[in-house]
Amino acid sequence: MVGILNRIKQFARSPQGRRATEQARRAAADPRKRAQAQRLLGKLRGRR
């Protein structure tokens, strides 16, 4: 488990990880994208 966490930390610090983080932040700030994500989560939760 420690190995996985270290790999995640390395990715987050890399330029590619920073870009992915920034894209996620922008998507979370967009009201349309946020609503789309909420609908998707609702569908996934409803299947259980």
Automatic annotation (TrEMBL):
Domain of life of the source: Bacteria
Q: What is this protein called?
A: Uncharacterized protein
Q: Where is the composition biased (Basic and acidic residues)?
A: 19-33
The ranges of region (Disordered) come to 1-48
